[in-house]
Every structure is written in C-alpha cells, then in structure tokens.
Amino acid sequence: MCENGFTDPRLLSGVYINSCTFKTQSYPKPDRTVTHDEGIDMTSEIEPSACSCDDGNCACGTGGCACGSGKCTETIGDSSDQGPEMPDLGQGWTTGDLDEEWEAHAEEKLETVDFDVELGVEMSRDAMRLARGELTEAEFHDKHHEAIKAEFGIDERPTKSTPLEATRGGDGNALPGVPAVEGSGLSSRRGLMKAIGGLAATGATASVAGCLDQDAGGSASATDGDGGDNEVQMGMVIDTDQCIACLKCSEACKEENNTDRGAQWMHVFRYEEDEYGETRAGQMPRPCQHCSEPSCTYVCPTQSRFKREEDGIVVTDYDRCIGCKYCEVACPYGVNFLGKNEPTEKSPGFFGSETDQNDRHVGGPPPAGVMGKCTFCVHRQDDSAQRGTTACEDDCPVDAIHFGDMNDSESDPREYLRENDEETRFKLLEQQGNEPNIVYLGNEPSNEAKPVDGPYTYEDVGLETLAEDGGDD
Amino acid sequence: MSTGVLEDRVLYPLENTSRRFYALLAVFVLTTILFLVAWVYQLNVGVWAATGIGDWGISGGVPWGLYIGGFVWWIGLAHGGIAISAAVRVINVDRFAPIARVSEVLTVLALSMAATNIVLSMGRPDRIFNTIIWWPATVHHSPLAWDIAVISLYLVLSLTYLTLSLRAEIAAFRDRLPVHFSPLYVLLTLGYSTSEDEKIEQILWWLAVAILALVPLLSGGVVPWLFSLIAAQPGWFGAAAGAAMLTESLTSALAGVIVITAIFRWAYDWDDVIDERIFRDLAIVLAFLALATIWFTMHDILTGVYAAPTNIGALTTAMLELSFFWLAVIGLVVSVVALFVMIGWPEQFFSIPALVGVSVILSITILNKKVMFVVEGLMFPTAPPLTNLYPTGSYSPTLVEWWLFIGTIFLAGFGFLVASKVIPMVELDPEEVN
Ligand code: SF4
Ligand code: SF4
C-alpha cells in the first residue's frame, strides 16, 4: 500500500519500480481497452492467470478479469511493444489506485536493462515505509548507499547537498578533459563556406575554423561518417521503442541544468500516426543533435555558438552571445531557447562548472537574453568523475538513452547499436544535411504524425512552475 | 526660373525658420522621448518579455518579428534610395536632380534605422560590438556578418557620396548657411578648392556606378540571403527570394522618395523647384515596379500550391488564409490599378496628393509583406516530421514593439527635419554662383 507523500511515484531510487498505482489517464491505444473502474470487467484479451486485484478478490473469465471491489489489473505476459496504460502522475494519487499492470510492464522493461531489479524493488518498499514514517530518511540512505554505489557507480542522494563535490575533482577544479584534436577535415558544407570565406574575406587563410573551434588549416583527416570530423564526437543512441515517455529525462535535465520555465532542452515527443489504417503511437526524446554540420554555428555572427574540438559538443559562449537568435532560426530541430531568467521550482540551482576546460562560459542555464540549449551536460564532460554521462541518460528508467563517443566502436551507444542491429534506425531530418549525432532506434515518425498528450505532461511533473525567486521579467 | 531665385527658394529653410517647423520639431522631440522610454522599458524587462517574440519549437513562438521585418524594410528603402540618386547621376538626367539629395539623405537615415531595428531585436544589445570584434572571424560564414559588412559599406559609400556632392555647394553658399553649424561646414569643406570640382564630379560618377552595380548584389543578395540560405525554414529557403526582394525594395524606396519629396515640396512651396513632371515620371516607374512585385507574389503562390512538396504546400495554403496576406494583395492591386490609371489619363486622374496616397499604401503593403515573410517562415518552421510534431507558431507584436518600430519612422522624420536645417535639400549648381 502506498501513502500520499511521494511526489514522484514513477521513480524510487533510480530504477523504475512502481509498487503503487495511480489514476490512469487515457491516451489512445489502438488495440486494447483497459478499464480500471471498480467492479468493471476488463475486456482486454489477456491471460486469465494474469489478472490480479488489489483486494485479492479476483475472478477471471475467458479473456477478462473482474474484481469484487477495488482495482483490477492485468499483466501482460508477452513482450509486445504495447505497454499497459501508463499511470498518471496526478499529485492526488492514493493507495487505492494500485496498478500492478503498470508495474508488470515496467518490470518487464527493466528485465532488459542492466540495473538490479531487486534492489529497485527493495528500495521502493523502503521508500514506502519512509513515506509511512516507519523509516527515517537517514536510515533509508544508509541502508541503500552501498548497494546504489555498487550498482550505479555513484550515489547522489541526498542529492542536493553535495552536487558540487560530485561534479568537481578533488582540488575543486574541473579536471582537464580529453586532449584536443589536431587538424580537421573539411567536409562539403564547410568546404563551401570556406570557399565563400575565401571570396568574401581578405585572406586566403579564411576558414570557418572559429565556429567549429577547430584549426581548419590543418590537413584533412578521414574519419568515419557518423561522427563527422571530430575525432571524438559525443552523441546518443536513443531507443524509441524502449522509451516509455515518462519525461524523466526532461525532468532530470531541468534539475541538472536549472533551465527556464518552458525550456525543455530534452523534449519528449509523444505522437500518433496512421500506419496503413492502424493508429500507431510513438514517442521520441529530442535533445540538441550536436550536429557534425551544425547550421547554428555557421550563422552565428560572434562565434558564440561553436563546436568543441575535443568532443564535438555544440555549446554557446554565454559571455559573448548577443542574443540575435540567428542560431535558433537556422537550426532545423527547434532546440534553442533564449535565456529568460525564469528558473523553475524543479531545480535548486546549477551546481556544475559554468566554464569549460578552456575557460569559456558554456555550462548550465544561459543568462537572460542569451541563447541556450542542451549542452550534453558539458560540465560533466569536463569533470573526470562524471565524464561520459548526462543527466537524462542517468535518469532514464528503461535505459533508452545511450550517451558516448560515436566514433569509438567500444562506446556504449555504438555497442547498443550493434546489439540491436535488427532494429530499424534513423537520424532525424537527415535530408537537412546537418549530420546529427543522435541515432534513433525504432520507427521514424511519419510526415502525418500528430502530437498527442503523453502519459505525463510537463505540468504533471511540475516542470512549468516558476521558482519563488524566479523573476518574471 | 532664374538660378538666383532657385537658390533663394532652396536656401530659404536654412535661413528662415517658420512656426510650423517648431511645431513639427516639438512633435518629433516628443516622439523621440517616447521612443526612448519604450526602449528603456524593453531593456529593463528584456526583449523576450516586452515583445511578442518567443522560441520556436515546443513553445510555438516566433523568434523574429516586426523588428526584423522592419529591418528588411528599412534596408530596402536605403538601397533603393541610393540607387535612385546614383541612377540620376549615371544616366545624367538633370530633370531628376531635385530628388537626388532627398534620396541620399533617406539612404543614410534608413540605414541607421535598419541598424536600430536589429539592435531592438537583440537579447543582449549591450554586446552589439561583439559583432564587430568577431567580424574578421565570422565574415567567412555568418550571413549576419555579411549584412553588417554590407550596411557598413553602404553607410560609408552613401556618406562619402553625400559629402562629396555637398562640398562645392557648401563652399559656394557658405555665407548663407547657418552659423551655428560652421564647424561641420569647415569639416565638410576641408581642403576644398574650386579646382577639384571636375575631379569630384568624376569620382561621384564612378561612385554612382559602383553603387548601382552593388545594389542587386547587396539588396537583392546579402539581405535576402539572411533568410534564403536557411534550409531549416522552408518558407524562406530558395534562390528567387533575392530578385523578389530587390523589386520590393526598389518599389518601397521609390514610394518613400516620392512621399518625402512631396512633403518638402508642400512644406516649402517648392512647386517651382520640383516640377510636377518629375512626379509623373516617377509614377510610371513606380507602376511597373509595383507590377513586378505582384508578379513575384503570383509566382510564389503558384509554386506553393501547384504540386508543391507537402510542407511548402501547407505553408502556402496557410498563408492564403492569413488576412495580412490578402491585405498585401489588395494593397498591391489597388496601387497598380491606380498608378496605371494615373499614368494613362494624367489629365483627369494625376495629382500629387493621389500619388502620395498610393505611395503610402505601397510602402505599408511592402512593410506588411516583409514582416509576413519573416514571421510566416518561422510560423511553419522546419521540415516534416518535426514540422507536424511542433505546434504552428503564433506571433502578434505588442504595443511596445509597434511603438518602437513606428518610433524609428519618426526618428527618420526627425533626421530629415534636422537635415533640412543643415544642408540644402535640393542640389544646387555652385558654378552658377561662381
Ligand atoms: S540540433 Fe540545432 S542547435 Fe543543436 S547542433 Fe544541430 S543545428 Fe545546432
Ligand atoms: S543568439 Fe548568440 S549564439 Fe545564437 S547566433 Fe546570435 S550571437 Fe550566436
């Protein structure tokens, strides 16, 4: 049984375990009807044995469940993509709203990830005890600290008091990063820009070097297509079939980077489309694509927007940007948000390093009037303890996001691609020529895809609420 | 009219100040103060809060609005203005000489107002000089850096042009010009001797040729490139934007010159200085320019609705539903019809007030078209499947935005008012004096 008091029932302890259930919010699902009202027959085609009722009084007929009182849930046995109805994160959920169906779905997804499910379940139980007051917070953390450390390599809880230590090296300074790459190749677009530059500018040495943070005078080096010209090119593989549109990544990003109200550096599209007469629902998380041919950097009149040489991350120099919004206009992905100085309640502030290893102010939320967007948690990349991680990846309960060097065949994303080589894959808006570094697994949304409300909205998870001190000016 | 009388008439505003002038001055000072108040407000709350602009993408905003549309409009006026003046010199049509000076001044003022609009649109206007500091590094790749280059180049060219053409005149009429601007006149005529006149004429002619040659590249190139190179916004992308924009620019510039010249003619009773025939000839040019603008609009629509790629088709269809679009079409059609009636039957229908009326309609129509071009491109951003997943953008300028933009028009008016007290607004021939 659950008690009120958990603000986020979706996630207790970093893995997706849901012992409590909540009011369901229906979002259209094509091939199954699930009702959760008391005493009403479940009409879905399920295994009778998969029925369970929270009052233990379960009657199963062929193809359906019926409960005496309380809630009835079905458990889906097969590994079909269609998960059960996702629980709503209304803040008013109660213990009566158990949804074992959802738990089963989540557990099933969890089977496919490397995390320790038992640990999660155990933590969830304790978390409920915590909520009931049977356990103090300190006891809770004590009990699980070691296990979490072992499982995730890091235990941030109780998060908010220690993040500074977590993101800094021992001496308090951000540690030096990956060594800089010498030289670069000029690909077609850059070559053209260089040619124009040569025409327009005074010197023949003209190049777009600056906007790529690279020495374009260097000799061209062949690199593989995926990662563009940077020897190290951070990127992501995002498995849209694995994604459950829980918005944990958006939320984690907001907490980590303290972004403004309304700014979702990591946005999760939830959509429906018609597939030969059938309605198909889908979801697609969308960070900045950290393009290899980033149109945003080309257009910037101050070279504030640039691509880091050391890891191919595209960031904005917050101290130099004039807020002309040209990068926003030139980006085909719609990932830019002008800084407004409207922090939300979600985040206590930004605790990472604001300056990168080259001392440019690129980390965290943009100051007012300056352009911001997903930084691939650049403050983590310059910190040896957290290098190679992002907040969204860390918090994804179903391990749908894989972050790493796209040019390194041993990296997590590349490995994941190999493991799932049967799956269809796509890059978003590839025809635009930006050479994005996010690879998606699953079906690409069609040109007819229509946005629909997901199981959670940003309001649900409190992403839109202004912080007390957030200036609304 | 004898030369002496012409001089008297042209120099009259420099020697005398009427009550009407003071009234107008008061109005402009007031509007300037209001402009500054609105700007300070915008600086305080931030451009994102004071204006209707927002972020495209999930927020469904439009990052560029009235200011950028206004910027393009001002640039059009500026380039067209200097082109008219240069054309007068290169083709050597003395008859049009009286409008040359007004066109030159318009260019200088319009360029300044274009720059002002850019500054208004920026999130961090205090950092404007970063564009200059980093210009050597960004000019290779950023269309905005090209624009800064073009605007600066044009400002230099038009100021040089204006200054050179003024030297002989100022030197000749020095004693009749207001004393309190003496330092300026000394500066302008530094090292002047009558022997340079011929040389200066030659230099001016070549400058004019250079300006004319640059107009298509700059007004029909660099400014439209700001948009047409951006593949992310299908509403902008394309090669024909340059030609269309050049035509629109020339149309609005000519309309602007007509309006301002007519105002000066009316204010100083210059009926004898600026002949009505000039206006008739300008009306003919304007009629054909406006017709060309309609032609480009038709071209746009037809390619957009006839078997166009789905998102371009959707974009055009959506545009056809915008009332602003139909306002623009009506404005163009009405102007063209009126202009052709005027030039066809001048005896019955031509009058300067009517021409000014049509010119005002055309200027507003083209402003509308430019703002629509900017905003519309951003309302239906990107390509599918993202274009269908993101909400359609929406934008409506706030009062502050309207006021600041209209304020730039008043500022330009203020500029004209001041200029009319400093330099002769109609070119005089100094040789007649000497
Ligand atoms: S997605 Fe947009 S903002 Fe991000 S790197 Fe590419 S062009 Fe730039
Ligand atoms: S808004 Fe800033 S980062 Fe973007 S193009 Fe302008 S100056 Fe560059």
UniProtKB/TrEMBL annotation, chain B:
Localization annotation: Cell membrane
- The UniProt record lists the keyword Cell cycle: no
Membrane spanning stretches:
21-41, 71-93, 105-124, 144-164, 203-227, 239-266, 278-298, 318-342, 349-367, 402-419
Main location, first listed in the record: membrane
Keywords for the protein's UniProt record, in alphabetical order: Cell membrane, Membrane, Transmembrane, Transmembrane helix
One Pfam family, please name it: NrfD
Write down the superkingdom of origin: Archaea
The UniProt entry, under InterPro entries, shows: Electron_transfer_protein, NrfD-like
Topology with respect to the bilayer: Multi-pass membrane protein
Q: Does the keyword Nucleotide-binding apply?
A: no
Q: Which PANTHER family match?
A: PROTEIN NRFD (PTHR34856:SF2)
Q: Which family does it belong to?
A: Belongs to the NrfD family.
Q: What is this protein called?
A: Polysulfide reductase NrfD
Lineage of the organism = Archaea, Methanobacteriati, Methanobacteriota, Stenosarchaea group, Halobacteria
What gene is behind this protein?
Answer: nrfD
